[in-house]
Amino acid sequence: MIRRLRERVSLPLLGWLVVLWLLLWGDLSWANVVSGTLLGLLVTVVLPLPAVSFGVRLRPVRIVLLLGRFLLDLVAASAQVAWLAVRPGPQPRNSVVRVPLHSGSDLFVTMTAELVSLVPGSVIVEIGAPSALGGQGSLYLHALGVDSEAGRQRTRRTVLLTERRVMRTFATSRAYDEYLERCRADGSDSLCAGSRP
């Protein structure tokens, strides 16, 4: 019985539920900690979540490089958007650009979408999840100041390079190999290729 209970209760989830309980009460006391723990145990035993395998491998050096590149993109895009806002002349034309992704994982598509949408000048309009589309995810994004096919290609290239950085930072070797296969299948291997993670 105790072994089954140990398998059903996730300690990180239980800890998070206790923290939420304390935040809801706004008071750190023994009574709130004990009641939050008991309530968290009840929730995790009565309403268990299915086990999820993320297939993620953390690479600290690559995480630092990914964040550094994100900050560079953030500064450059902020300057471009600021210039578009104050420059004289007509308002810039915009485009909605579809970018087919190759990661094959809802998690990696979400990470890519988050990094792309946090950079000024682009807003994610729709996410096509790989789990719903047979493994081929996609992003539709509204790109500011993009009104030509060359601009749309630059936008696609930027998103695909962001996806590659996400895959090289977080993907397991197997997930990265599958990602490279999908890139080769649609002819995007020049943007996907790079040293193995």
From TrEMBL:
It is found in: Cell membrane. It is a multi-pass membrane protein. Keywords: Cell membrane, Membrane, Transmembrane, Transmembrane helix. It holds the Pfam family MNHE. Belongs to the CPA3 antiporters (TC 2.A.63) subunit E family. NCBIfam families: PRK08965.1-5 (NF006521). This is Na+/H+ antiporter subunit E. It comes from Kineococcus halophytocola.
